[in-house]
Write a structure and sequence with these properties.
The chain is mainly β. The chain contains one helix and four strands.
Length: 81
Amino acid sequence: MPYYVIHNSDGDTFVEEVTKEELIEKLEPEDGYDTGYYGPVGFLSKVSERDTNYWGDNILIIKGEIITPKPKEVIKTFDIK
């Protein structure tokens, strides 16, 4: 099941779909640096502010799948007592 990483950089919101392995790799410090791909970050445990501009250096990680609602045909009938 994929992971979705939501973060903000310079006022822009980014959403990335990554595997578990990719996520771990991006969170681990890079060679010669103290931070990983996302930089020095904290992790959100809930969404208390929907505007990512107020998340600071925090990222949100969601494990799940994307769903697409599909239309459902509804038939209207009459009932006579």
